[in-house]
Amino acid sequence: MNFHIEYEREDDGRWLAEVPEIPGVLTYGATADEAMAKAEILALRALAERIETGESSPCQSILNSLPHESMAFGKGQTCSCRAA
After folding, report:
1. What CATH code would you report for 2-82?
2. What is the secondary structure of 36-63 as a DSSP string?
């Protein structure tokens, strides 16, 4: 399954990165690369936690929890990452 990292620069200069498919995966960094790396790590940790707690299909439950409308940042950019 592919997840997307959306990122944008805040007014204060920090970078915000989010994986909208996984609730709670939102990170800040001094650079876009740092924020995206932190978001990828946090996404993998969230998936690992769901597996450890016995959730049979963590990816499917994430998809089921998504709203039908888009969760994209208005001015943000998107890149793809793969999570197992």
Report:
1. 3.30.160
2. HHHHHHHHHHHHHHHHHTT-S-HHHHHH
